[in-house]
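Are you able to produce any protein sequence you like plus the matching C-alpha cells because I've never seen that pairing?
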Amino acid sequence: MRIAVCQNKGGSGKSAMVVNLAAALAEAGELVDVADVDPQGNASRRLAARPAADQMTISEAIKCDALGAARDAYVPCGWGGVYSERIRVLPARFELENRISEAGTVGAVKRLKRALAGCDDRRITLLDCPPSLGHLTQLAMVAADVVLIVAEPEFDGIEGAVRVLNFVRDHADDLNNPRLRVAGVVPSRVRSGLGVHDFQIAGLDECFPGLVWAPHIRERAVVKAAADSVAPLRSLRTAPAREVAEDFDKLAAQVRKLMEVAA
C-alpha cells in the first residue's frame, strides 16, 4: 500500500509524521519504504539516508521514465537495528526541484508510479510530499493508493488540509487515479490548553466527517530533538519520548488496518 502524506501548508509536521510513523511500523514488524518527494529532503536526512554525491536518487528515478527505475536508488535507514533492516528510503536531494519543469510534458505525472513499479511489493510505502499541490505532489498522488493529511490545528493548517481534501475529490480522475481517496486527517503539533488549538480541534469532525484519526500528535520538544539528532524517538529514553512514540504506535495500527481492508 502506498500512502501519500500531504498538506498544502509548510511547517505542519508532515515529515515528522512520515519518519515517526515509519519507525512505529518497523517496530511492529512491517517492511516500510519512505519515498522522499520533497526537495528539502528532510525525511531522508532524519532517517540518516543521505545519498552519496554520485548515487541515484528519486529525482533520477523519475527522470528515467521507466518501469522499476527506482530499484537501484533505495538506501537503508541509517539508524541501525530493526530500523535499518525494515526501513528503506528513496532519498531526495534539492535537484528534485528540476522535475517540476517537466510538469507540462505529456505523461510526466505518471513517472513516479512507473519508477516504483515492482519495487515496493509487499511493503508499506510512505510518500513524503512537499507542502504544495503542484507537480511533485501530483506525482505522489498518481502513485498512491490513499492520501493521509497532516493538519496543524490553526486556521492556515486547516485551510491547507481542506485544499488537499478538495483537490483529491475534484481531480483524482484527472490524475488517472480515480480510486484515490483521503484515508484520514491527523492533527499534529497540538498544544494542550492553547485556545486556538482547542477551538480548531473541536470543529475538526465537522470539517472532515469520519476522517479524523486519533490520537492527535502533541507538540513536544522530543520530536524536534529526535529529528535534530537523526535518531528514533525511542532512543531518547525519556518519558515524553515514550509517550509520543506510543501515539505513533496507535497511528501505525490504523495504517495496518487500512492494509487489511485493501488486501
Observations:
- Strands lie at 2-6, 32-36, 75-76, 87-90, 124-128, 146-151, 181-187.
- Residues 153 and 200 are 5 Å apart (CA to CA).
